[in-house]
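Most newcomers find our protein records easier to grasp once they have seen one. To make this concrete, we reproduce a full record directly below:

…
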Amino acid sequence: MTHAELWERHKAVMPAWLALYYEEPIEIVQGSGRRVTDGEGNTYLDFFAGILTNAIGYDIAEISDAVREQLSSGIAHTSTVYLIRKQIELAEQIAELSGIPNAKVFFANSGTEANETALLLATQNRRSNQVLAMRNSYHGRAFGTVAITGNRGWSASSLSPVNVQYVQGAYRYRSPFRDLPDAEYIKVCVDDLRNVIETTTSGDVACLILEPIQGVGGFSSPPDGLYGAFKQVLDEYGILLIADEVQTGWGRTGDHFWGIQAHDVVPDAMTFAKGLGNGFAIGGVVAKADLMDSVKANSLSTFGGNPISTSAAKATIDYLLDKDLQANAAKRGAQLVDGLRGISDEFPELGDVRGKGLMLAAELVKPDDNSPDAAATAKLQQETKNRGLLVGKGGLYGNVLRMAPPMTLTEAEATEALEILRDSFNTLR
């Protein structure tokens, strides 16, 4: 069956709002290392890793062996009404890695569920339905997480279970404060935060939830230190800080294991998902014990933290720690940033290069007025695919190429990707 035939079947039974990449969508059927093969036999260097989920790459023996060992027991599922040894072991490891004192961990199935849980904890703990979120943010596709998403392209409904106010600062490239030095930029954003609290809320806000680097928003982030300065204001009002580490966790940003650590602050809670399971469905929250225990009603997660996903996740964390993939992310990220900035010197269409580690973005603009160029972005994404490289797309205006390869990326593969990107940019001329 061709991709075109499969696409027709997809359109007949899947929602119209379920977005697909490329003019002619592809099916990925095989993978090894950092490369994948589609249903028609074409092979690609994967620079989006299933939206940052295949953090280690494909066909990793240590992870596959851990899953096979669990499957060989005959137990794929028991539910959280029973003890699950791998779940406990994984929770102990994440609690320690979090840096949150006396941390507890709850497992779910996705980043959306993790963020929904964090909202439940914060609003229950503070007895308030008021929430602060960042402009240009994205936190998931459920009712509560859509409500705190500050990006019109992903905000499907104006209905909300919480009262949300949005704060300035995360997307610097098009901020009215973009030309300020870092220290002044941080000051005006902190002043804005205080003003939002004092003028648009009753003061007893539950939490501020933020992505250290905005994912769907185009891998945008403020200067290091902004969220540490935010925390000082939040503490004055007793407002909790939740870091959405769904895309930034596990060392992907290179310099730090968690993205929020760039701001020299320990949050009250962190949410996680994606890369933890290297493709297996798992997400969760790690939080201070008193915050985690705020829920007094009975609760559970049928599939969250099941024996299969926690076995895969434990093997994934052990692998990335043993191989020091955080250091590799820093090295390969620096190589890619240098290469992308070299391309930006040649092509004014590349308006901004940003990101950290193996979480990089290229924002495409029209050179005459610096306005977003979504058409050029779509063309470039197609051109890189035609040359054997898969990259993501995002940003508030759909004009950002997102690059987040597996953290096992090699120097030669980074060089190969840069050559493909430069060749693809040449098609804009």
Q: What stands out?
A: Residues 3-60+325-426 form a domain with the Aspartate Aminotransferase, domain 1 fold (CATH 3.90.1150.10). The mean pLDDT is 97. The radius of gyration is 21 Å. The longest strand covers residues 359-366.
